[in-house]
User: What shape does this take?
Amino acid sequence: MTASLPLFAAVPLAARDPILGLNDAFQADTHPKKVNLSIGVYYDGAGKIPVLSCVQKAMQTLMGQNAPRIYQPIDGPAAYTQAVQRLLLGADHPAIREGRAVTAQTLGGTGALKVGFDLLSYISPNVKAWVSRPTWDNHCALLEGAGFPVDTYGYYDAATGGFNLADMLRDLNRAQPGDIVILHACCHNPTGVDPTAEEWTQIIETIEQRQLVPFLDIAYQGFGSGLQEDSEIIRRFAERHLPVFIASSFSKSFSLYGERVGALTVLTANPDEAKRVLSQVKRAIRANYSNPPIFGAALVSTVLNQPELRALWEEELTGMRDRIREMRLMLRERLSAQAPGRNYDYIVKQRGMFSYSGLNAAQAQALRENGSIYIVESGRICVAGLNANNVDYVAEAMAAVQKS
Ligand code: LMR
Assistant: This one.
């Protein structure tokens, strides 16, 4: 017998994903008081991942239709992509009216980043990509996978637990024309720290002056201040008539994580550019996964396109946002009681699902090993995993690892 090719003999073991790997470990953990504050998932007050009522109603409608499971258009159905544009830009935005905005359904926000980066690597292969320091880990993996060298711009200020505009502008001023800048439109992941409107003005001006390409990641629309407020920065970029990329996701806002419902939107200069860009977006999708799945996007477009369901969704989203805010207040109160000398105001100043706790990797590991409390090793805590029943347990454990 001929010896088989030792193809896998030297394949190295890849590192466990810093977020999904912890989520797997959490599922396998049998500790009765385990708490999942690792992955960006919203749990309700009873510690359950909700199926939203608006989604349940849309599901009943769709099930009743018993539609054939045909191949979808490569860029997804128009009812979905148009609803996405209206949600991001506002119903009567000039970019929509003038046919300058292109949107394609993607496999979650990650799929949108992947397709967008593939498109950019075709259009401008020799540029660099810039991400915030820190950023969502997968940004770097996706950018490097598309062939871009990745550099970082200053963002988080560990001393204040806030945003450092001077560092960001200094670094962006080192970028070259055409370089891609990944920005978190709201609810920055992992820090929960967002620039103010005035700070965004300076960021937008720098990006425009240096002819950089803004790529906005908006996975948490509605979890900061509201749907309109959280997408404001998209409209501010759109005003400048720059080429803009937007990766959006309904994983969190519709609690539809496993359905992988997202979209890539690109703002171009005119309908002719839009047509050509869309053709390249479709080419990139076809070469990745051919065309998108039906169900999740059908749920979202059913809700977004029916006024009563849309109103119900907004109400449910407000409920999720308000509950997270309550948990922030509760966590600050409990931690302050545990460690009176420390200032925990950063917890209530940060927005969205995450709080950057300042805990280090060893402390995160201790939380996991001693009490089955899972947080990301960067110190990121998903506040949406807290509830009235586990917040004391978490606060005591956090205070204990900070003391030791
Ligand atoms: C997160 O940051 O936890 C989420 O965006 C889930 C993921 O895919 O990492």
Remarks:
- The chain has a mean pLDDT of 96.
- The first strand starts at residue 35 and ends at 37.
- Residues 78 and 104 are 9 Å apart (CA to CA).
- The chain has 16 helices and 13 strands.
